[in-house]
Each structure stands twice: as structure tokens, then as C-alpha cells.
């Protein structure tokens, strides 16, 4: 997406088709002599057995500027899942370790924190990421933490290099870097971003005109991307949601814990493709419907924590504004698809928007019934204050 457009709150690092991989990796090798990088790969047993994971491991063999790779294996109840993961990452050498979150050693460590009143009983990507951060914090030489998903079909090292470089280059001073990309094959993907988050943020800006946080979220081209990098300090101080609100919750913590001038987003210079969730219209506790409600309630709760008052009439207004914004988006996507020769099912898009509009209301009911929601996983500052050797013990059980 080559352009020069800059948003007003955060820096955008564009793909201008001039950043050659060899040059980027040479800069990374130079920068990481002083600033080590830890890479987090959260993976489930099913994703571990899928073709993209094998390709990721193959590419990472040549990413010699990465010091440590923490593979957090979740939704993997069998010891054979753990053994197979260890075999698959073996080509990466000693720098790669598998953290089996369902294994007895890590479950025992979780139990200590649960007994101390810390909410860690909910499995999922959030807990896997939190666990990997703790593992990396045990190594004082690692200054930059990088995360990307493990179901990226068209993965290559250029993606990784562009995600890492803004954080480690000595001429730059960012503390958080968020990825963005176009999710396109023969059609547009990314329905939750296109048909829920984008129009919702327009509606929120109309409803809460003074909210700097809403404006901050609207500066991101792909707020739900699973790829980001951050400093050791933010990895230690950010709380992590345990549900589908992970990406938005992470942005809320970044907004809270660092200066906006030290936040950037980077174009990963690709048409990004990974597995797609089912819409799940018939089951609001699964698929994109569950994701949408978690995202919405995370946004509502974050706004409430900042002193924003939301009444029943607020949500009626918000739903109406969302529908109008979403319909405008559909018209814009239809034009974009037509010029770019993409398949575009406008009727299906309209049905999806109607379903998401219901989620706006459903999430409001969830929020009003439980304004605080499930407690976020405590940040590592709190954990290490209570258990100073916990990160070291977590590091010791990695396979």
C-alpha cells in the first residue's frame, strides 16, 4: 500500500517497495549486537500440524538476528502434542523453547498464582502470550519482544524483518509497533475489521467526540492484527486480556502506558492470508460473533475506565450510527472491489453488518450486566513483586 499518508497521533511506516530483505536483515544484525530480540509464537496443536507452521520454522532458520524463540503450545492436552512440537522446532536449535501451557509443570506454576488470587485459569492466546513474555523476561539481555501468529499461509522473513526493525534500529525510539496489511485473495477478507471495527470507530468518534482513546484506535489501519512488537518495559507493565479482546486490550494498555509519539504501525508489504473464522450467525458464543462481542465489550469497558458515561440511550445512538457508517463502508468496499476485479457479495456483506449491529446491542447488555468483566491477566510487574523468582522458574521448565 505505497503512500505517504500519516495519521496525526501515531507514526505510519509505509511499504514504498524500496526495502530489500538483505538490507533490512543486515541492519537488524547490526542493531541486535546490543539489543536482543525475543520472538513469541503462540500455537495450538492443530495449527502446529498445519502447513504454515512448517514454513514459518523453515524461514526462521535463516533469521539469525532473533536471539530467543518462545513457542507457547496451547489447546494441546496430550503429551504427544508437546513432543511433536519439540520435534518440529528442533531445526531452530537451542534458541527455540516450547512452553507447553497444558503440561503439568506450567499448570503447577499457574496454580500458585491462582491460589494467590491472580486470574490465570482461562486458557487461550492471551495466557499463552503472557506466559511467553514471562519466559523472555527471565533473560535480562532481551530488550524487544515480537509476536506473530502461526497460521500465516504466505509467511516469509520480510514480514518479520519489517516488524522488528522499527523497534531496534538505534536511530528510532519506538516502544510499540503494530502491523497492518491487506487481507485479499480473489476477494476481501478481514470481515471483523472491515464491517465491525472500522464503522464502529467512526460511530464512536461521532458519539464520544472528546475521547482521545477512540481517536487513537482509529489511527490504526488494522487494529486487530495479531502481529506487534514492544519493549521489555511494556511487556512487563501491560495487562493482557484472555479473550478475543486481546488485540484491542493490548492497544488500550499501550495507550495507557506509553507516549503516543513512541507508537508506530508498519505495513508488512504483502497480501496477508491466514485461516478464516466462521461467521457463526446461529451461535453467538462461537466464531466471529463471539469475537465481535468480546471486542465490543473490551472497548466499552475501556471507555468506562476512562470516565466515559454510557447509558441505554447512548447505545441506541451508537447502534444507529454504526449501521449508517457500516452501510457507507459497504458502498466504498464495493467500489474498491469493482475496480480491482475482486469478487464482492454485497448481500452477504449486508447480512454480516446486520449481525454485527445486533452484537453492538448484545455487548452493551453484557457490559451493563458486568461493567468490569473478567479480570485481565495481571501484568508481570505485579507477579514478580509477589513471586520474585517466578520468571526464572518458568524459564527452567521450558522444553
How would you describe the overall organization of this protein?
With 399 residues, this protein is of the alpha/beta class. The protein has one domain: Alpha-Beta Complex (Spore Coat Polysaccharide Biosynthesis Protein SpsA, Chain A). The chain has 16 helices and eight strands. The protein has an eight-stranded mixed beta sheet, with helices on both faces. Helix 1 packs across helix 7, helix 8 runs antiparallel to helix 9 and helix 13 packs antiparallel against helix 14.
Low-confidence stretches: none
Number of domains: 1
| CATH architectural type | Alpha-Beta Complex
Q: What is the spatial order of strands in the main beta sheet?
A: 1-8-6-7-5-2-3-4
Largest sheet: 8 strands, mixed
Query: Rough shape?
Result: globular
The average pLDDT value, as a whole number, equals: 93
The CATH topology turns out to be Spore Coat Polysaccharide Biosynthesis Protein SpsA, Chain A
Number of helices: 16
Keywords: Glycosyltransferase, Transferase
Protein name: Glucosyl-3-phosphoglycerate synthase
Organism: Stieleria marina
EC number: 2.4.1.266
What brief labels describe this structure?
single chain; 399 residues; alpha/beta; Spore Coat Polysaccharide Biosynthesis Protein SpsA, Chain A; eight-stranded mixed beta sheet; 16 helices; globular
